[in-house]
């Protein structure tokens, strides 16, 4: 890893957080990698390292970042991933990549569908089923063609054997994305991830951050501000990212907004499962001739016809309002 990252040169740093740093590198065979080096003395980091290795060794999906290997010694622990070259959704919506070119509507739909597929795989098709617990726009990395890859499984937890069941755990995650039932009770469900996904979908629609204290009073929290605007075309016109308003038909915004609205419902029982979200977004992409990418991995295992119809009907009725 020392050779691959040019002796962990600071110029190779592509990310940094409480866990440590991420370096870009190149293996001897030319494979481009990202090396996540964790802080050794941090016991929480030890747990996150073990959790991430265990989870990623079992997970294989087009829309999840691929673990290439691990390195451990007395001084360093590192995870070696495939290098995803095009930054994160967060960077493209709120950071340096936005300054280069804002995300198109087609790219946003592709990201929304691919990320939904990744979460649906975790919730419904992996064994054991997995709750990500820190799903957010900075943890969705992008290929050059905007294929999304869900990353960072350091906080992931195995889900309850019952899809609607919960596990009790210390509240972790990122402010603005954490579902209300999890924040208030410590009860974690797969639908806690669904709420976080809904926040990301609102980011894609509005171009706003989940929490932005520079906004006017009452507009700091994205979900709180957006909820009343999701119920009418007039509200959606106000909510929509200015970079999208002239290029997207209001009815198409409304269909995606209806899905986002269901995902961020305060009541857990009223949120869809991710497999249902995948099916609803596939219809939107198909009707708009947006490239979906690979279709394998979308789960139908727990998505009842009635539930799918509910999600689809909601997006259709919103379109007509």
Q: Can you tell me the CATH architecture of the largest domain?
A: Orthogonal Bundle
Characterize the biggest β-sheet: 5 strands, antiparallel
Helix/strand structural class? alpha+beta
Q: Roughly how many Å is the radius of gyration?
A: 19 Å
Looking at CATH, the homologous superfamily of the largest domain is Transferase(Phosphotransferase) domain 1
Measured as a percent range, the helix fraction is 25-40%
Instruction: Tell me the number of structural domains.
Output: 2
Widest sheet: strand ordering: 1-2-3-5-4
Number of continuous helical runs: 11
What would you note in describing this structure?
Strands 1-2-3-5-4 form a five-stranded antiparallel beta sheet, with helices on one face. Strands 6-9 form a two-stranded antiparallel sheet. It has eleven helices and eleven strands. The chain is globular and about 60 Å long. Helix 6 runs antiparallel to helix 9 and helix 9 (250-263) packs across helix 11 (305-320). Mean pLDDT is 86; it is low at 294-306. A hairpin with a 5-residue loop joins strand 7 (140-142) and strand 8. It is α+β, with helices and mostly antiparallel strands and 321 residues long. The chain folds into two domains: 10-82, Phosphorylase Kinase, domain 1; 89-320, Transferase(Phosphotransferase) domain 1 (Transferase(Phosphotransferase), domain 1, Orthogonal Bundle), CATH 1.10.510. It has helices at residues 43-58, 89-94, 96-100, 105-125, 180-185, 190-206, 222-226, 233-239, 250-263, 274-287, 305-320; strands spanning 13-17, 20-26, 32-38, 67-72, 77-82, 130-131, 140-142, 148-150, 157-158, 167-168, 187-188.
């Amino acid at each position: 890893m020392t050779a691959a990252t040019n002796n962990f040169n600071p110029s190779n740093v592509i990310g940094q957080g409480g866990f440590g740093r991420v370096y870009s590198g190149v293996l001897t065979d030319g494979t481009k990698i990202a090396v996540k080096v964790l802080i050794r003395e941090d016991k929480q980091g030890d747990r996150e390292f073990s959790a991430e290795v265990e989870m990623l060794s079992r997970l294989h999906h087009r829309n999840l970042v691929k673990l290439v290997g691990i390195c451990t010694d007395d001084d360093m622990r590192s995870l070696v991933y495939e290098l995803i070259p095009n930054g994160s959704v967060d960077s493209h919506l709120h950071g340096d990549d936005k300054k280069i070119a804002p995300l198109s509507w087609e790219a946003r739909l592709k990201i929304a569908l691919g990320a939904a597929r990744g979460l649906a795989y975790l919730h419904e098709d992996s064994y054991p089923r997995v709750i990500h617990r820190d799903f957010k726009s900075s943890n969705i990395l992008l290929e050059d063609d905007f294929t999304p890859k869900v990353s960072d499984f350091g906080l992931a937890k195995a889900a309850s054997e019952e899809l609607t069941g919960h596990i009790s755990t210390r509240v972790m995650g990122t402010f603005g994305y954490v579902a209300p039932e999890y924040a208030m009770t410590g009860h974690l469900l797969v639908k806690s991830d669904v709420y976080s996904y809904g926040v990301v979908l609102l980011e894609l629609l509005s171009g706003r951050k989940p929490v932005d204290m520079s906004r006017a009073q009452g507009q700091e929290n994205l979900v709180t501000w957006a909820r009343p605007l999701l119920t009418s075309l007039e509200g959606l016109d106000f909510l929509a990212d200015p970079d999208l308003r002239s290029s997207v038909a209001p009815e198409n915004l409304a269909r995606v907004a209806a899905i986002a609205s269901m995902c961020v419902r305060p009541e857990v029982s009223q949120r869809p499962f991710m497999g249902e979200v995948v099916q609803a977004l596939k219809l939107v992409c198909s009707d708009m001739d947006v490239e979906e990418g690979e279709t394998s991995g979308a789960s139908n295992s727990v998505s009842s016809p009635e539930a799918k119809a509910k999600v689809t009907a909601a997006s259709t009725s919103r379109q007509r309002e």
